[in-house]
Amino acid sequence: MLLLNIDYIPGKEIEPLGIVKGTVVQSKHFGKDFMAGMKTIVGGEIKGYTEMLNEARQIATKRMVDEAEAMGADAVINVHYASSAVMQGAAEVVAYGTAVKYI
């Protein structure tokens, strides 16, 4: 499945099939969340949260692709990601775009 964050596919004519999305709410284990809190005291990257968000983006992307494949899409264009904190230590990640079929 081709994924692009532009609204066309160079050299291809496409038919839009509709909006597709994938979403996940991900949290960290309490112990890792506690250690991340301690890290805020000294500063620097909180690797546990970086890993959590990377994993969440992968899951959301897979769910978006699964939805596009179920529609018979060849690609998803104009792909974007959004995230928000749902509660302390948990984040929602959404991947969305337009499923298209080659003409």
Describe the model.
- The protein is α+β, with helices and mostly antiparallel strands.
- The protein has a single domain (2-102), classed as Hypothetical protein apc22750. Chain B (Translation Initiation Factor IF3), CATH 3.30.110.
- Helix content is 36%, strand content 41%.
- It contains two helices and four strands, in the order ββααββ.
- A four-stranded mixed β-sheet has the order 1-3-4-2.
- It is elongated, with a radius of gyration of 17 Å.
Can you tag this structure with a few keywords?
103 residues, alpha+beta, Translation Initiation Factor IF3, four-stranded mixed beta sheet, 2 helices, 36% helix, 41% strand
- The total of beta strands comes to 4
Task: Please state the second-level CATH architecture.
Answer: 2-Layer Sandwich
Order of helices and strands: EEHHEE
Query: What would you call the structural class?
Result: alpha+beta
Distance between the termini: 16 Å
- The helix fraction, in percent, is 25-40%
CATH fold node name: Translation Initiation Factor IF3
Strand order of the largest sheet: 1-3-4-2
